[in-house]
Each structure stands twice: as C-alpha cells, then as structure tokens.
C-alpha cells in the first residue's frame, strides 16, 4: 500500500497551483476538510490536494464557489461505496461508474444541487469511494444524463426513478414468486434474462399504446 503523504500549507498550495492566500480562503469557506494539527503545524494530505484540484476544475467549468461548497457538503455527507453496494456486493449485470465531482457536474450541468445529490443517494444511485463518486449503473447514469440534456430537470428525473423503483421491485417479486412455485432458487439466475425480456417487451408495447392515444 502506498505511503500516505502529508504536506505543509505552502507545499500543498504549490502542488495545487494556487496561492497560500487562496488556500486559506478555501479552508475558511469549508471547501476543504480541516488539516491534521501537530502543535502549531497544519498537515494536509492527498485528499486535500484532490479536493483543491477538483475546485479548480469546477471553477474552470463555470461553477460558482457557493455551488462548489454545496456540492462538497453533499459529497462529504454521502454514503460510501460499501453502503451503496450493500452486503451482497456489486450488481450482477449493471456496471458501476467511478466519477470525480467535476465529471459528475459535467454530466448534469447546473443540476448537481445538494437536494438532487441527496435524492440520488437515497435512491442508492450514488456513493463515495475516497475522493471519487460511484454511480451504481452506467446505463442509468447515461439515461438520466440524456434526459437532463433534453431539458428535463434532474429533480423530475429522480422523482420518476423513485416511482419506477417501486414498480420494478413489484415486478421482481412477481417473477421470483412465479419461478419459485415451479423451480428452485438456483434456477433464478438462469431464468433472469426471461424476466428482463418480458418487462422490456411489455414496456415497449405500453409506450406504443400511450403514443397512439389522442
């Protein structure tokens, strides 16, 4: 395991490409966590350096310091990746995505508010892994990002996702009960693609019916 590095304020500012005065300002605004203190000496680590580089990247993308502070607060209070994935481990078919805070902001330009982050974390979409954010599913990330870029507010997308989650849980329960009445739990993984195909086909037909309505 790599040895943890620590820096004094002047070295940290130099590595981050900012002035010591700016570093003090960020610390006063609570944009970075407090340093470790050893007597009168403040020690910073790679976590602080990553956060400072993130702040610089977000500022270059046009984000305000107030918005960055809100993002940092939500990020610091988020669940870690262990809570996100749960006891059962990673999803069996979905691909988790690791993102920096600025990459997440790029996916949802102007929509990464603390309220939206909290909603995404409550749904189990987002967790944290060190200085990175983890999204539970690349497909869900891509779809939600596409909807936002089509002009649909992220808050509405997340509200719809919460409703879809309720229906999806009910469908999963229905399929599981059906299989277990006639087969064993060991058969569930093998038959799982059939359940997905039924749901996809029925949703496609339902969309056809909905779009034909006046």
TrEMBL record:
Pfam families, per database record: MerR_1
Record keywords: DNA-binding
InterPro entries to which the protein is assigned, alphabetical: DNA-bd_dom_put_sf, MerR-type_HTH_dom, MerR_fam
Every HTH merR-type domain range: 6-74
Keyword set includes DNA-binding: yes
Protein name, as recorded: MerR family transcriptional regulator
């Amino acid at each position: 395991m790599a040895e943890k590095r620590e820096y004094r304020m002047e070295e940290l500012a130099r590595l981050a490409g900012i002035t010591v005065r700016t570093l003090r300002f960020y610390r006063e605004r609570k944009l970075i966590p407090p340093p470790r203190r050893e007597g009168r000496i403040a020690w910073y680590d790679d976590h602080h350096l990553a956060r400072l580089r993130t702040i610089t990247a977000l500022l270059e993308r046009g984000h305000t310091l107030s918005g960055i502070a809100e993002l940092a607060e939500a990020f610091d209070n988020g669940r870690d990746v262990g809570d996100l994935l749960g006891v059962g481990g990673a999803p069996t078919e979905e691909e988790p995505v690791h993102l920096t805070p600025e990459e997440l902001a790029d996916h949802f330009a102007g929509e990464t508010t603390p309220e939206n982050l909290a909603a995404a974390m409550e749904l189990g979409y987002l967790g944290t892994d060190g200085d990175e954010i983890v999204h539970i599913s690349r497909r869900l990330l891509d779809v939600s990002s596409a909807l936002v870029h089509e002009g649909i507010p992220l808050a509405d997308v997340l509200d719809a996702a919460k409703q879809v989650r309720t229906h999806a849980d009910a469908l999963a329960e229905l399929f599981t009960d059906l299989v277990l009445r006639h087969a064993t739990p060991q058969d569930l993984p093998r038959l799982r693609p059939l359940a997905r195909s039924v749901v996809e086909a029925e949703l496609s037909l339902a969309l056809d019916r909905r779009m034909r309505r006046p």
